[in-house]
Amino acid sequence: MLCSIYFSAILLCFQPTPIICHTGIASWYNYRINGIEWSRKHDTAASRTFKRYSTVIIRNLDTGKEIEAYINDYGPEEWTGREIDLSSHAFKELASLGKGLINVSVRYKQYD
User: Fold this and answer.
1) pLDDT tens per residue across span 76-105
2) DSSP SS3 for 23
3) d(CA 73, CA 45)
4) Cα(26)–Cα(47) distance, rounded to whole angstroms?
């Protein structure tokens, strides 16, 4: 019985990342909360939908530009209506900071 439980736990750990794609609004931030390491020179993001410490592909639906970002925080708050908050560096790769909000699609990065 114990061996069966152990084997099931190992299989669960190696399941592929589910293919999830969400569309919504993205904004940018210029700070970090909760003591999580952050730099203005890296593509990081905060999401309530996607798991922390995962890598996602973010596509600007208006321009078609795509970037990879590392989810390192939980947010934005539900009441904001945003899907994801990007670091200023990540947002600049998709649109100018002056735009403030952009329409995006977000999905997990798939590894071969």
Assistant:
1) 888 888 999 998 889 999 999 999 999 999
2) strand
3) 7
4) 10
- Whose structure tokens read 């208006």? 62
Q: Where are the alpha helices (H) located in the chain, listed in sequence order? A: 2-13, 88-94
CA 77-79-84 angle, to 5 degrees, is 45
How many residues are listed for the chain in this entry?
Answer: 112
DSSP 31: -
38 SS3 class? coil
Contact 107, 18 (CB under 8 A): no
Report all structural domains of the chain as residue ranges with CATH numbers, in order of start. Answer: 17-108 (2.40.40.10)
Beta-strand relationship, 66-73 and 55-60: antiparallel
Residue with tokens 């905060």: 46
Taking only the tens place, the pLDDT of each residue in 19-50 is 678 999 999 987 655 545 555 668 889 999 99
Q: Which residues pair with 107 in a beta bridge?
A: 21, 57
Question: d(Cα 93, Cα 112) in Å, to the nearest integer?
Answer: 25
